[in-house]
Amino acid sequence: MEIQIGKMILNGILYAILYIAAPLTALFLLDFFGIFALSQYFIIGIIIFGIIGVFIAVLKSAYPKDSAKNRVIMFIVTIYSGVYLFYIFGGFDPTVELGNFSISTEQLEIGLGLKLIAWLSLGAAAVRSLQYLFEAFELRGVSKDSAEYKRRARPSLLFKVIGTLISLGLAIYILTLIGSGVMIRPSINTGASGFDYSAPNSLNFTLNYDLSNGGIYPLRNVNLKSEIWVDSSENETTLPPNTKIGESTITQYSEIGAFSGVANKNITVIIDTSYVEDLATTNATLSYHIIFDTFFGGITINLTLKIPVPWDPSSIP
User: What is the pLDDT of residue 34?
Assistant: First the structure.
């Protein structure tokens, strides 16, 4: 059987892009824009996994597609692809919970728990691989055009159909999850109320918020709260930056259905009494944080929305 050198080289290049170049480029861009922090061990892991994947892919291309050897290697490639993706989700890192990703920008922090997607992807790869395993048995000692092959039972066809349907279903699930996720719209309006400068000093901030779920999956077990932090101030001794000066109690919703939401609701942030006098005399820039966590379409979401607001003591009635 002639070795297919040209296909080996082409597949080596394609899988090097797929396993190494593409994920590293995406991760470096996320790191460059300050959205995702890269771990050196994670990068090394991708390179090692990628090199092994490229080697297996090159070996697969050495044999014609309709040969038993090719099908055995395709079985290994498919399993390996699932394992590689499982590694991307943190499946082999004891310091990281499976499927946990966090994205951070100046005004937004999102933590995603994608454990379900990690397991579904690995399971889908396992089912797809069975097609190639059975094809290897079916092609053993015969060619695909032979009468003997045509007489053999072909369970590979069943697993091909099942694997295709599972992969299609998983792709639709992920796409609808992403599309629905971007339709979650939290927003807040800010104001100050309930100021009482007699002892004991008190200052409350009433936050008016809306939470819209425009996706097809309900938000379950929603926990909502708000905090106020100091971004900057004219007197950093009394109001130091990156200091939390107030927070609210937690508001809970058992479910916010698909294509629905809650509107014009209030949440009260109570300022720590030790900072009330300083706010009464100091100009500052405050950061209003609205924080919620929820279970959404099989994944968990922890989101913090940060809104900088100039603070002027004269706004106190």
Answer: 65
Phi-psi label, residue 68: left if phi above 0, alpha if psi -120 to 50, beta otherwise = alpha
Are 112 and 101 in contact by the 8 Å Cβ rule? The answer is yes
pLDDT tens-digit map of 70-115: 889 889 989 988 888 888 887 776 666 777 887 777 888 888 888 9
pTM of the entire structure?
0.79
pLDDT of 259 reads 93
Give the model's confidence band at 257: pLDDT under 50 very low, under 70 low, under 90 confident, else very high: very high
Q: Is the pLDDT at 195 greater than 70, yes or no?
A: no
**Bridge partners of residue 100, in order along the sequence:** 113
Residue 315: how many CA atoms within 13 Å on its side-chain side?
15
CB distance 305 to 292 below 8 Å:
no
The first and second tokens of residue 163, run together, are 């694997």
Cα–Cα distance for residue pair 280/245, rounded to 1 Å: 13
Q: How far is CA 312 from CA 107, 136, 257, in A?
A: 21, 75, 39
Among residues of the chain, what percentage have pLDDT more than 70?
91
Burial of residue 202, with CB atoms counted within 10 A of its CB: 0-12 exposed, 13-18 middle, 19 or more buried: middle
The pLDDT of residue 240 is above 70 = yes
Kindly indicate the confidence band of residue 38, based on its pLDDT and cuts at 50, 70 and 90. Answer: low
Q: Are 181 and 160 in contact (CB under 8 A)?
A: no
Q: Give the bridge partners for 301, in sequence order.
A: 112, 294
Half-sphere exposure of 290 (CA within 13 A, CB side): 21
